[in-house]
């Protein structure tokens, strides 16, 4: 009975997409979007209770499965998509009212939002590496439409870049998937050669030469979606030009889900190769992303581009930590993924609201927020402090753990990481400070909004930073055992 | 034994010389049909040759011996090339000389003589034609050699006789590498024989002509010889192509019994290739001269690709 | 060396030839025709694999690919090209012979990378993997070097062709669900791109990528 619940949870957003597409540009679309997301969240909670009681399980003839690694990501997706839909209600209404968005496109927006969530959930719950690929491709297609929503030259350019780059990336990932199937075909044969559960049980018997080539394609392919340097070119444009709720879910969820795919394949490849060469590859990509991401921050003028580059840096850090391997580093990486997803979406919520209030995304044009709209100003400040890793917040805990793990396994990388984190801290805090506390600029009528979503995220991040809930820590530990060698 | 070889050799030489104008006529006829014209008939090239042979040649006063000798040299070179190719039988008197590299050398020698003779009088068009023909030759020759190396690698020898023998022995095996070599060979054949899209054999347009510019100063029997050797050259090229890529029906045995069948098959192959050539020429437009290096560069790369594919597949 | 295997090898070579031809082709109509040819080669390759294994789903896959890549997608592309009024790709910065040389380098690289792959007892060897890899890299090169959006898309579709070719020749086909999903994604992708093109054209009055790219501040 509850096996089917998993399938239902995945299907809720898809059904919601059909409903929202039918509602079109009606005002009820906003609330319906929230309702669908809430239903998804409820489904996810139900499923979580089941996992807590019985552990990993699979359903629909092993086509779908949940284990400790995917369960917290599923919850994360369901939760962030719900808060984002709340934020999106007030934000997108304002966008329509300000004349930035043609109301006729609201139907597309809501439907594609739910299709995107569906693709994420399918990618996380499917047991089949082929279906995983299809879900990632579906996510690419739906978000390409979302990024180009405003139909301005810049947003079309960004969407085109996103489509082509991620299209190529995802195509390479398909080649990697085919290679994995090729390697497993002779061991398992037929359909079972695509199932995670079966692949893991025979990972030691897969051909190492093929798995090595396959992993290269997979890390380059899915790495394009994670935004790993040098495949990150699409990321700043897509985040800056798309609607802000989409920037939040792209940064918080899509990047994490793509990283999830890489991590799963890494466990497989390490099992086949019997070396941690795949981990070294991830360390290389991760470190490059941390450095390039951090050093690109200072030249940004657009507020959303600034935080987009910060995403490159943070995903690089998580990739680096997964590459290190071992219980501690993997634990830290999972924590970092969670904390980053929550923090970065909160950052985008506030910076989107800030840009909407100020009427510009140019940071030089935004000053004196705290005088004009104190709640918004302080939320932006708090979110920015959270994202750069100041103590009470969750990212501090995860970055601290990652540095400890790096000291053990790759001490040479610690100075580089500290340098990058320092640069990121300096640039983001200086920029935010100027925006929040600067001399008040020309005042504009504040738009009514709820800051519930960023508040909720900040509270969760503080909890993560102060004391990780026991249940979550247990999942992380189990997941780390699953992924680590 | 020697007598048999001599007989085969003589028949082949006579066949090549006699059939070349017919092949040219066939291609022209096909092109006429393809463009909805009735055409001048298959025998038109013979009539033209006959007419030219009867006319008194006019030679410029400044012309040197080279100018007069060139038509004979070129004609002789083409006949020698035609005599070497194992397109009907592998047992020929000259079979020992039928080497891929030597063959390319014979063609080059003819081209150099033609280019020198064109420059001999110092006319503008002659020098221009010489320059252009050397450009095409300079690019086509490496491509031709690369094409020949692919079958040479398969059979382990550059001797055409060994290659044809080896390829024909295996029957209907299609070598993937030969697909690339064949595509490149068609391109080289078009370029080397001054056909479309590299050169248009039908016009004397100053800006684009290549082959015709070489012959502008020739008349009478000299012109007849040049045109005839051009026809033989085309037949030889198609003959090489048929021997390399469609080696079926070439007799290997010592007797003379298989010959009629082999000749019939060769005529069929020539007719089919002529039709294909006419179709290519009808469908393609003349390339601008500076696109020709691109065209031949592509041919060269395809041939190299053929070699690579051979290494990959191991056959 | 069975006749069937040699036929598949021959088709593999033709597939690579088509990829090279697309790389050197500037005219959009010819590019679309070449794409259709490549699709035809792919479909016959799958049909041969289906005959070799006798599996029904491979026959279905061959049919699906034939319908999609010989008929549907080329027709869609042609109508797009006609309605957008693009016939030629703009002259790219890189000369065609240079492009071909780079392509040759990629082929050598791909063939070398495929050499260590050998599965004992499998009907296929590293050769078809090498061809698929080479065709994939060539389509990537085409996407990088092309200046108009439509030819980039054709490059992308060619990329997808070589992936399916890899799947078929290497493993005798992936399970049907996957292939169906891939086909669906391709179709949806094409439609979305079509929508894009019209908006891009409205906004930029051109389909040249550098003008689109140079637009963000």
Plain-language structure description:
- The complex is a heterotrimer of chains A (485), B (315) and C (217).
- Chain A is built from 19 helices and two strands.
- With 485 residues, chain A is mostly helical.
- Chain A has one domain.
- In chain A, strand 1 and strand 2 form a beta hairpin.
- In chain A, helix 12 runs antiparallel to helix 17.
- The two termini of chain A are 35 Å apart.
- Chain B is mostly helical.
- Chain B has one domain.
- In chain B, helix 1 crosses helix 3, helix 3 packs parallel to helix 9 and helix 7 runs antiparallel to helix 9.
- The radius of gyration of chain B is 19 Å and the shape is globular.
- Chain C has one domain.
- In chain C, 80% of the residues lie in helices and 0% in strands.
- Chain C is built from eight helices and no strands.
- In chain C, helix 2 packs antiparallel against helix 3.
- Chains in contact: A-C, B-C.
- At the A-C interface, helix 5, helix 6, helix 8 and helix 9 of A face helix 5, helix 6, helix 7 and helix 8 of C.
Salient structural properties:
heterotrimer, B: 315 residues, 11 helices, C: 217 residues
- Strand/helix succession of chain B: HHHHHHHHHHH
Helix content of chain A: over 70%
Principal-axis shape of chain A equals: globular
Oligomer type? heterotrimer
Which descriptor suits the 3D outline of chain B? globular
Mean pLDDT of chain A: 87
What share of the residues of chain B does DSSP label as strand, in percent? Answer: under 5%
Report, as a whole number of angstroms, the end-to-end distance of chain A. 35 Å
- Fraction of residues in helix of chain B: over 70%
Please state the structural category of chain A. mainly alpha
Residue fraction in strands of chain A: under 5%
Question: SS-based structural class of chain B?
Answer: mainly alpha
Question: What low-confidence regions of chain B span 5 or more consecutive residues with pLDDT below 50?
Answer: none
Total beta strands of chain A: 2
Mean pLDDT of chain B: 86
The gyration radius over C-alpha positions of chain B equals 19 Å
Number of domains of chain A: 1
Sheet with the most strands, sense and barrel status of chain B: none
N-to-C SSE series of chain A?
HHEEHHHHHHHHHHHHHHHHH
Write the layout of secondary structure elements.
The complex is a heterotrimer of chains A (485), B (315) and C (217).
Chain A: H1 2-23, H2 28-54, E1 57-59, E2 64-66, H3 68-97, H4 106-125, H5 129-147, H6 153-185, H7 196-201, H8 208-226, H9 234-241, H10 244-273, H11 277-296, H12 303-324, H13 326-358, H14 369-372, H15 374-387, H16 394-409, H17 413-437, H18 452-466, H19 470-483
Antiparallel strand pairs in A: 1-2
Helix pairs in contact in A: 1-2, 1-4, 2-3, 2-4, 3-4, 3-10, 3-13, 3-18, 3-19, 4-5, 4-10, 5-6, 5-10, 6-8, 6-9, 8-10, 9-10, 9-12, 10-12, 10-13, 11-12, 11-17, 12-13, 12-16, 12-17, 13-15, 13-16, 13-18, 13-19, 15-17, 15-18, 16-18
Chain B: H1 2-34, H2 44-54, H3 65-84, H4 100-120, H5 124-155, H6 160-169, H7 176-192, H8 211-215, H9 220-245, H10 259-283, H11 292-313
Helix pairs in contact in B: 1-3, 1-9, 1-10, 2-9, 3-4, 3-9, 4-5, 5-6, 5-7, 5-11, 7-9, 7-11, 9-10
Chain C: H1 3-24, H2 28-53, H3 56-84, H4 96-114, H5 126-145, H6 149-171, H7 176-204, H8 209-213
Helix pairs in contact in C: 1-2, 1-5, 1-6, 2-3, 2-6, 3-7, 4-5, 5-6, 6-7
């Amino acid at each position: 009975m509850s096996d089917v619940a998993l399938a239902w949870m995945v299907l809720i957003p898809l059904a919601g997409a059909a409903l929202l597409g039918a509602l079109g540009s009606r005002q009820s679309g906003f609330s319906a979007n929230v309702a669908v997301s809430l239903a998804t969240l409820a489904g996810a909670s139900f499923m979580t209770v089941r996992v807590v009681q019985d552990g990993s399980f699979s359903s629909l003839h092993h086509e779908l499965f949940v284990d400790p690694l995917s369960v917290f990501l599923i919850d994360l997706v369901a939760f962030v998509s719900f808060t984002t839909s709340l934020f999106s209600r007030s934000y997108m209404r304002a966008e329509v009212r300000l004349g930035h968005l043609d109301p006729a496109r609201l139907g597309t927006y809501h439907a594609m939002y739910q299709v995107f969530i569906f693709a994420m959930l399918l990618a996380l719950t499917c047991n089949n590496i082929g279906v995983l690929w299809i879900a990632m491709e579906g996510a690419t297609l739906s978000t390409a439409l979302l990024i180009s929503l405003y139909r301005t030259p810049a947003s079309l350019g960004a969407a085109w870049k996103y489509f082509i780059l991620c299209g190529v990336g995802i195509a390479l990932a398909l080649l990697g998937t085919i290679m994995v199937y090729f390697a497993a075909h002779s061991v398992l044969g037929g359909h079972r050669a695509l199932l995670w559960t079966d692949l893991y049980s025979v990972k030691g018997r897969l051909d190492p030469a093929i798995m090595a080539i396959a992993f290269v394609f997979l890390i380059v392919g899915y790495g394009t979606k994670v935004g790993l340097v040098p495949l990150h070119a699409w990321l700043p444009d897509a985040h800056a030009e798309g609607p802000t709720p989409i920037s939040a879910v792209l940064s918080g969820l899509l990047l994490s889900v793509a990283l999830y795919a890489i991590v799963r394949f890494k466990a497989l490849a390490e099992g086949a190769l019997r070396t941690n060469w795949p981990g070294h590859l991830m360390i290389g990509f991760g470190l490059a992303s941390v450095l390039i991401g951090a050093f690109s921050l200072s030249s940004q003028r657009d507020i959303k581009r600034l935080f987009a580059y910060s995403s490159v840096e943070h995903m690089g850090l998580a990739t680096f930590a997964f590459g290190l391997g071992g219980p501690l580093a993997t634990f830290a990486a999972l924590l970092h993924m969670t904390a980053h997803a929550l923090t970065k979406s909160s950052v985008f919520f506030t910076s989107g609201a800030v840009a909407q209030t100020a009427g510009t995304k140019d940071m030089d044009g935004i000053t004196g927020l705290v005088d004009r709209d104190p709640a918004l100003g302080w939320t932006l400040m708090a979110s920015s402090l959270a994202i750069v890793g100041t103590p009470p917040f969750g990212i501090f805990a995860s970055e601290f753990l990652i540095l400890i793990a790096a000291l053990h396994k790759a001490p040479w990388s610690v100075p580089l990481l500290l340098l990058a984190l320092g640069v990121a801290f300096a640039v983001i805090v200086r920029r935010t400070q100027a925006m929040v506390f600067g001399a008040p600029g020309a005042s504009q009528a504040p738009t009514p909004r709820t800051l519930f979503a960023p508040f909720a995220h900040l509270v969760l991040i503080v909890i993560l930073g102060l004391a990780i809930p026991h249940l979550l820590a247990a999942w992380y530990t189990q997941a780390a055992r699953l992924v680590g060698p | 034994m020697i007598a048999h070889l001599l007989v085969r050799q003589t028949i082949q030489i006579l066949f090549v010389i006699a059939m070349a104008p017919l092949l040219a006529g066939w291609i022209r006829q096909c092109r006429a049909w393809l463009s909805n014209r009735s055409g001048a008939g298959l025998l038109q090239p013979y009539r033209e040759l006959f007419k030219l042979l009867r006319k008194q040649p006019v030679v410029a006063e400044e012309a040197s011996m080279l100018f007069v000798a060139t038509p004979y040299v070129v004609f002789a070179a083409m006949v020698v090339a035609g005599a070497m190719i194992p397109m009907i039988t592998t047992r020929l008197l000259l079979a020992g000389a039928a080497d891929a590299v030597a063959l390319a050398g014979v063609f080059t020698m003819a081209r150099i003589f033609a280019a020198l003779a064109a420059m001999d009088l110092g006319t503008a068009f002659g020098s221009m034609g010489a320059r252009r023909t050397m450009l095409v030759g300079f690019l086509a020759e490496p491509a031709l050699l690369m094409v020949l190396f692919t079958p040479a690698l398969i059979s382990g020898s550059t001797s055409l006789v060994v290659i044809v023998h080896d390829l024909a022995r295996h029957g209907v095996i299609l070598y993937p590498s030969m697909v690339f070599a064949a595509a490149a060979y068609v391109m080289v054949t078009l370029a080397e024989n001054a056909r479309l899209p590299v050169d248009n054999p039908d016009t004397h347009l100053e800006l684009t002509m290549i082959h015709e510019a070489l012959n502008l100063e020739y008349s009478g029997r000299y012109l007849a010889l040049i045109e005839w050797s051009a026809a033989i050259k085309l037949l030889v090229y198609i003959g090489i192509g048929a021997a390399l890529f469609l080696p079926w029906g070439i007799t290997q045995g010592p007797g003379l019994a298989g010959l009629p069948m082999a000749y019939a098959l060769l005529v069929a192959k020539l007719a089919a290739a002529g039709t294909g050539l006419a179709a290519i020429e009808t469908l393609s437009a003349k390339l601008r001269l500076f696109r020709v290096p691109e065209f031949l560069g592509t041919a060269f790369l395809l041939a190299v690709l053929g070699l690579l594919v051979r290494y990959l597949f191991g056959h | 060396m069975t006749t069937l295997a040699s036929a598949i090898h021959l088709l593999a070579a033709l597939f690579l030839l088509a990829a090279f031809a697309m790389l050197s082709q500037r005219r959009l109509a010819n590019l679309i025709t070449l794409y259709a040819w490549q699709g035809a080669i792919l479909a016959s390759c799958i049909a041969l694999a289906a005959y070799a294994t006798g599996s029904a789903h491979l026959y279905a896959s061959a049919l699906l690919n034939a319908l999609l890549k010989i008929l549907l997608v080329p027709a869609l592309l042609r109508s797009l090209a006609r309605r957008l009024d693009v016939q030629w790709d703009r002259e790219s910065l890189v000369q065609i012979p240079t492009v071909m040389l780079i392509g040759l380098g990629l082929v050598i690289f791909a063939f070398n990378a495929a050499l260590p792959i050998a599965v004992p007892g499998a009907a296929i060897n590293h050769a078809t993997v090498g061809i698929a890899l080479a065709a994939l890299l060539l389509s990537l090169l085409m996407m990088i070097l092309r200046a108009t959006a439509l030819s980039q898309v054709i490059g992308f579709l060619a990329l997808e062709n070589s992936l399916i070719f890899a799947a078929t020749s290497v493993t005798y086909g992936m399970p049907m669900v996957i292939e169906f999903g891939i086909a669906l994604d391709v179709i949806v992708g094409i439609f979305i791109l079509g929508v894009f093109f019209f908006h891009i054209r409205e906004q930029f009055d051109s389909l040249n990528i550098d003008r689109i790219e140079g637009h963000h501040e």
